[in-house]
Design brief:
The chain is α/β, with parallel strands linked by helices. Helices cover 39% and strands 15% of the residues. It has helices at residues 17-31, 60-63, 65-75, 88-97, 135-138, 148-163, 176-183, 228-242, 257-267, 279-288, 304-310, 344-355, 358-373, 377-392; strands spanning 4-9, 35-40, 56-59, 79-82, 100-103, 117-118, 124-125, 170-173, 192-194, 215-219, 247-251, 271-272, 291-294, 316-319, 334-337. The chain starts with a strand and ends with a helix.
Length: 396
């Protein structure tokens, strides 16, 4: 039975992973016969890598909040599938009107800053449960900005978001790691669902692993939590171990870009910083890489870039944090860097081990492709549809 599904999110047609997910899911649900509409907070930026289907849109900025909700109510959704929503008054209005399935793309309501990691005395994931004691850690451990006012605002926001947990018809996350995180922070097992993400269809025509030069690829936002500086140092170490130079492409942008570029130049790394790549250029960069590096020092909720590379037969090396194991099976589709905390030498060892043996590289590449082949949009929708139907309740 088909449904009328209202998607809700801060933005639409943006360059980030949440919008790419939403556009793909919207296309898939429309193809399955469901009616889709979108309620969004920010104006469209027209930067999406995945085209959106033609659906009704209710823009809060364009129409005003009252008019947007009036038009959404007139559309008569059966269920709302909500995503990143910074304005919790909007989120509250959603749960007051419709059954809401909430997809948690990050640590919303389970961490004061949402970063789920410490910066001091060294960068490492945090495994604390959210609560008032987190405030004692926020400034000394550099959980967020060095601002007491920001700390208070973020804590109040997280508490409000946490207070909405019981009002959702269901909560969806992308990994077993995130399911455990939200379960220990008060979401009941009966309403909590781990639905792994899916690989894009970009693998056709890919060169074989043995044809690729030694090139490491990083894809993502350039922030301290993404560990780009550790990767640059690891590439230097790996080149020394291999006795040959390893090149590096760091695609993306963010506040650390120039710092990382300067570090690469100072250490003599053959590194390119092309910025954000359009879909075709991004796919080409993946196909030209020997190996994807995911040097994140925070617990990634999932790590979608790993599946994007795996779809092209490109294995990954990564620190064993967060939901990485959802798509990286150690020594089958890539290697996990072994260390008590994220550090360059462990990452360098993993890089050298893969690039040092063509047979290992080829084996892991095939394993990555098999892993991606089992994680498709269709399988994701097969698991998502029952969650939405159950949230909707008996049809009228």
């Amino acid at each position: 039975m088909t449904m009328r599904i209202l998607l809700a999110s801060d933005g639409i047609e943006e360059a980030g992973g949440v919008d790419t997910y939403l556009a793909s899911v919207a296309c898939g649900l429309v193809a399955r016969g469901h009616a889709i509409a979108v309620l969004h907070q920010n104006a469209s930026s027209r930067k999406a890598g995945v085209p959106w289907p033609r659906v009704e849109r209710f823009g809060l900025q364009e129409l005003g909040t009252g008019q947007a909700f009036s038009e959404a109510e007139a559309w008569q959704p059966d269920v709302c599938f909500s995503h990143n929503m910074g304005a919790l008054e909007i989120e509250t209005a959603l749960v007051e009107r419709w059954p809401v399935v909430k997809m948690m793309h990050g640590y919303l309501g389970t961490c004061v800053s949402g970063q789920k990691s410490f910066e001091f005395p060294h960068r490492q994931p945090c495994d604390r449960q959210f609560g008032a004691p987190c405030l004692a850690m926020y400034l000394p451990r550099r959980c967020g900005r060095l601002s007491p006012a920001m700390m208070v605002r973020e804590y109040a926001w997280a508490r409000t978001q946490r207070g909405l947990f019981a009002r959702y018809a269901a909560v969806v996350v992308a990994s077993e790691h995130m399911r455990r995180e939200f379960a220990r922070n008060g979401v009941s097992d009966s309403s909590l669902h781990a639905l792994p993400l899916f690989a894009p269809s970009i693998g056709a025509g890919t060169a074989t692993q043995l044809e690729r030069a030694d090139r490491i690829l990083f894809l993502g936002r350039m922030t301290p939590l993404k560990g780009g500086d550790l990767l640059i140092e690891a590439v230097v170490d790996a080149s020394r171990r291999l006795g040959r130079r390893v090149a590096l492409t760091m695609a993306g942008d963010g506040p650390e870009r120039e710092t990382w570029r300067a570090l690469a130049a100072r250490l003599g790394v053959d590194a390119a910083f092309p910025g954000w790549l359009e879909p075709a250029a991004r796919d080409q960069a993946i196909r030209e890489a020997s190996l994807l590096a995911v040097p994140s020092v925070w617990p990634e909720p999932f790590g979608l870039t790993g599946l994007e590379a795996a779809a092209c037969g490109v294995p990954a090396v990564a620190f064993d944090v967060g939901g990485i194991r959802e798509w990286l099976t150690d020594n089958e589709s890539g290697l996990l860097a072994r260390s008590d905390r994220p550090e360059p030498s462990a990452l360098a060892e993993a890089i050298a081990r893969v690039l040092g043996d063509p047979r290992t590289l080829a084996r892991l590449g095939e394993g990555a492709r098999r892993q991606a082949a089992g994680m498709t949009l269709e399988r994701h929708l097969d698991r998502l549809e029952p969650v939405l139907r159950l949230a909707r309740g008996p049809s009228s």
